[in-house]
């Protein structure tokens, strides 16, 4: 079951026209409780809920360097091996020095 809190915009847009100054806290709790219980609140979040990303450990093909940080891996490739552009897949451990090969790889995820 997914647990998430509702966006505050959802509460302010609610059709309930009760006195919001005195009952807003209880009303907000109602929306939150429905969301936690997996019930439909009648409102969808305007913000995209991003899934937690796992740390992808990348292994350099030219040496024994590994890193789970994108910027660190790109810096390594640039300064240790002279590759100015490295294309890293966000979905798996794949990387390429060629944008064409990288695009072909991205198509394989579809």
UniProtKB/TrEMBL annotation:
Residue segments, region Disordered: 1-55
SUPFAM superfamilies named among the record's database cross-references: beta-beta-alpha zinc fingers
InterPro entries tied to this protein: Znf_C2H2_sf, Znf_C2H2_type
Domain of life from the UniProt record: Eukaryota
C2H2-type domain mapped to chain residues: 58-81, 87-109
Record-given protein name: C2H2-type domain-containing protein
């Amino acid at each position: 079951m997914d647990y998430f809190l509702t966006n505050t915009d959802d509460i302010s847009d609610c059709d309930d026209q009760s006195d919001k100054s005195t009952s807003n806290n209880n009303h907000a709790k109602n929306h939150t409780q429905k969301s936690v219980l997996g019930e439909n609140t009648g409102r969808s979040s305007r913000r995209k809920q991003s899934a937690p990303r796992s740390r992808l450990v990348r292994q350099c093909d030219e040496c024994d360097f590994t890193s789970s940080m994108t910027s660190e891996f790109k810096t390594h490739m640039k300064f240790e091996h002279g590759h100015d552009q490295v294309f890293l897949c966000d979905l798996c451990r794949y990387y390429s020095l060629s944008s064409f090969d990288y695009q072909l790889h991205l198509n394989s995820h579809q």
